């Protein structure tokens, strides 16, 4: 006997787990100092979502400037932070939704919609930052958007993908809950 569909009892925590990983990646992006870094020696520039630091020569002291003094810096931080807060809310709602024995599939579709809104806010912050940073802040040497900025994009991509999963999951409600008659490959003659 071969049964198709998802085994709800074993797979019910995969989506909340992936949301939790997205939250961890978002925390790394928010707190990481590697949004922009110098690519070659001497390493003279390093920036996070919150501040930009530079030093005159190798081994010198870093001097940091807050990006919250710029309107674009506040906009980038605020939009990415709103997207992250919406992601945390979706994570909490997913834990609640999957912990209940009788799953409410319309509630899950709402989580998917909220994830799309979170992705829009995150992407807005991730686009504002490099465009305005490279035009407003004087950069010396060869610089690259680095690991923490990559974690930000990973979070945004996870929000989009998980939004699709949460929106499409109610389409398979009968298969998940086991209300579909199993299909057998073997039939008696």
TrEMBL record:
One GO biological process term: apoptotic process
Pfam families: PMP22_Claudin
Membrane topology listed for this record: Multi-pass membrane protein
Protein name, per record: p53 apoptosis effector related to PMP-22
Record localization: Cell junction, Desmosome; Cell membrane; Cytoplasm
Principal location: other
This protein's GO CC annotations: cytoplasm; desmosome; plasma membrane
Family: Belongs to the TMEM47 family.
Transmembrane segments: 12-32, 77-100, 107-131, 151-172
Family matches, as InterPro entries: P53_induced, PMP22/EMP/MP20/Claudin
Keywords noted in UniProt: Apoptosis, Cell adhesion, Cell junction, Cell membrane, Cytoplasm, Membrane, Transmembrane, Transmembrane helix
């Amino acid at each position: 006997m071969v049964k198709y569909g998802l085994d709800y009892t074993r797979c019910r925590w995969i989506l909340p787990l992936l949301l939790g990983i997205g939250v961890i990646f978002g925390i790394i992006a928010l707190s990481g100092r590697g949004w922009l870094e110098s690519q070659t020696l001497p390493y003279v520039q390093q920036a996070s979502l919150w501040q930009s630091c530079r030093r005159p020569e190798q081994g010198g002291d870093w001097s940091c400037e807050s990006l919250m003094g710029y309107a674009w810096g506040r906009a980038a931080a605020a939009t990415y932070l709103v997207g992250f807060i919406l992601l945390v809310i979706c994570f909490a709602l997913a834990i609640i939704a999957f912990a209940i024995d009788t799953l409410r599939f319309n509630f899950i579709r709402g989580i998917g919609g909220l994830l799309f809104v979170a992705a829009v806010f995150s992407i807005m912050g991730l686009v504002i930052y490099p465009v305005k940073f490279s035009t407003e802040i004087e950069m010396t040497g060869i610089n690259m958007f680095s690991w923490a900025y990559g974690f930000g994009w990973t979070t945004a991509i996870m929000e989009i993908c998980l939004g699709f999963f949460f929106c499409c999951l109610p389409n398979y409600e009968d298969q998940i809950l086991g209300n579909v008659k199993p299909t057998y490959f073997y039939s008696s003659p």
